[in-house]
Design goal:
Helices cover 36% and strands 11% of the residues. By secondary structure, it is of the alpha+beta class. Strand 1, helix 2 and strand 2 form a beta-alpha-beta unit.
């Protein structure tokens, strides 16, 4: 583990959300939020909508959506990276 980044294990200083700074990265980010995590994430969803970020709520999923629905997560990421944002996966 010589190449392991020990800094990643330390507590990071939190920075308050800055809507103006977020514009620079908005189109490079895609958030996947589990439906069952929405109660804890309401403020986060409000920020995503206000900032016009790309995001998708994944039905029947909680915090660990990559473990709960790996095929759905992979498809969502591929569609985002290839620019196919309009492809609906609601039937999965």
């Amino acid at each position: 583990m010589r190449a392991h980044n020990q800094q990643a294990m330390f507590v990071h200083k939190l920075q308050k959300y800055d809507k103006n700074a977020a514009v620079a990265v908005r189109d490079k980010l895609y958030f996947l939020v589990g439906e069952h995590a929405l109660k804890q994430s309401k403020d986060f969803i409000d920020i995503l909508e206000d900032g016009k970020f790309h995001y998708q709520v994944i039905p029947h999923a909680g915090h660990g959506i990559n473990h709960e629905q790996p095929d759905r997560v992979n498809t969502e990421i591929i569609n985002f990276l290839t620019g196919d944002h309009d492809k609906s996966l609601a039937s999965l």
